[in-house]
Amino acid sequence: MLRQASLDPIIVEEDYKPKPNHLKPLEALAACNSNDNDLAKKVEYVSTKRIEIDSVMAAINDNARFWQFILYKLQERFPTRNYNRAIDVPEYVMPAALELLNKMVRQKAIVVSEKERLKLKEEFSNAKGFLDVKQNDLSIIKRLRTTIENDNGMKPLLNKIDGLVKEGTFVL
User: Fold this and answer.
1) How does pLDDT run across 77-109, given as a tens digit for each residue?
2) Is 82 a domain residue?
């Protein structure tokens, strides 16, 4: 990174006294590669100096350039990735026509059931005692569904949908 950014290490390095066990893995690596003089110099360097990433970022003073370098190095080191945890491939995607139909039915049903919803809210706004919430949730759905299904404007559309279902053309 320093070479690519044309940074002299002296600009960003700081004095450092590592804990004794911090250098052991590097010293062991250098001992195994005793004829690698460059590795021995690096171990010697890190025994007294360190370069912090925030110092490099401050010296570069170009956040985008710094992260481009990091991404480049990650791409170089790990050329392939598994995105299955990050990208969701859904089991089912609703066709656009059905999505539009649902939207239209929903909008119409909201208008049709408005009076019944207001009655229900009024009933529950001053309820005496304790109510079984789950039971009431079910009864609300039943009342609103009945209101929607009995509406003269909704019946023709719901009959067509029901006809498609009863035809069995969608049975797998």
Assistant:
1) 999 999 999 999 999 999 999 999 999 999 999
2) no
Q: Dihedrals φ, ψ of 14, to 5°?
A: -140, 155
- Looking at residue 113, the DSSP 8-state letter turns out to be T
Q: Which of these, 146, 85, 89, 93, lies nearest to 117 by C-alpha position? A: 146
Asked if residue 1 belongs to a domain, the reply is no
Question: Is the domain of 157 the same as that of 119?
Answer: yes
CA 57 to chain CA centroid, Å, is 28
pTM reported for the whole predicted model: 0.53
Residue 114 has pLDDT above 70, yes or no: yes
The SS3 of residue 49 is: strand
Q: Where are the alpha helices (DSSP H) in the chain?
A: 9-12, 20-32, 37-46, 53-60, 63-77, 96-112, 114-125, 133-149, 155-167
Answer yes or no: do 14 and 52 share one domain.
Answer: yes
Q: How far apart are CA 156 and CA 7, in angstroms?
A: 76
> Domain range holding 49?
9-77
pLDDT digits (tens, 9 = 90+) for 140-149: 999 999 999 9
Given a contact cutoff of 8 angstroms between Cβ atoms, the answer to whether 120 and 113 are in contact is: no
Number of domains in the chain: 2
Q: Report how far residue 24's alpha carbon sits from residue 32's, in angstroms, rounded to the nearest whole number.
A: 12
